[in-house]
Amino acid sequence: MWDERVPLHTGSAFYDVAGFKAGRNDLRGFEADEVGDVTGKRLLHLQCHIGTDTLSWARRGAVVTGLDFSGPAVEAARALASDVGEEQARFVEADVYDAPAALRGETFDIVYTGFGALCWLPDLTQWARTAAELVAPGGFLYLAEFHPVAMCLGEDGSAFAEDYFARGPFTYDEPGSYADMSAPTRHNRTVEWQHPLGDVISAVTAAGLRLEFLHEHDFTLFKYLDGMVRARDTSGSRGGEGTVYRLPEGRPRIPMVYSLRASKEVSA
């Protein structure tokens, strides 16, 4: 499924690869503030897809490695890195659970996971252990993800339509892609899992990382609830360059996105 969607995504208006090549940064404004200065830092992006977020960190000065299980996605990321002059960016093909072996025990100052990654993982405990193994002493894991509360709401956003504690697996057979819902596709079966916020935090801390913060945000990246309004990303001290979606003024706000940072202590 993911292999088939790589050319769909690289050619889509959603990813706007031409705009990225022209200099756009795809990180959300709050991410830059919460991660901090990445100049010269070794950053690993797990489940990096075609590499636009990975290379956005490179544009901020990080020495980046992206990892994804889709060969075509890794090839697209490498080509994009070459096109934008980020020749030092490295992309590795491997399943996320196999990352420590694929990277031969290398560790990183920052391990980053972005939006829409955790729902594809059946074993959150093993994912957290894997991420913790990849974090160098004194470094940290940073996660920005869709909030599970928002993902359980009905289309009108006024009530829960899904069971928050139903973890899955959930199997779907739907054509198209979030980048182009009308695109004709052949490989449409997917299996997803839902991870309540408590499960995420418990897995991260049980893996030996110290939670520094958990932040919740009142906007998201897709228009999936009725009445959502499009807005410019103004999160963080510098804001972002992308578009976000919020509920209109007058409606109760809900958490739609969350971020967390968890560090690995330096051994005595």
UniProtKB/TrEMBL annotation:
Keywords carried by this UniProt record: Methyltransferase, Transferase
Any signal peptide, and if so, which residues? none
| Database matches in InterPro entries | Methyltransf_12, SAM-dependent_MTases_sf
- Name the source's superkingdom: Bacteria
Which molecular-function annotations from GO does this UniProt entry contain? methyltransferase activity
Name the Pfam families on file: Methyltransf_12
Q: Which residues form the Methyltransferase type domain?
A: 44-141
Query: Could you provide one GO biological process annotation from this protein's UniProt record?
Result: methylation
Extract the PANTHER family matched here: TRANS-ACONITATE 2-METHYLTRANSFERASE, TRANS-ACONITATE 2-METHYLTRANSFERASE-RELATED
Q: List the protein's name.
A: Class I SAM-dependent methyltransferase
The organism is: Streptomyces klenkii
For this protein's source organism, the top of the classification is:
Bacteria, Bacillati, Actinomycetota, Actinomycetes, Kitasatosporales
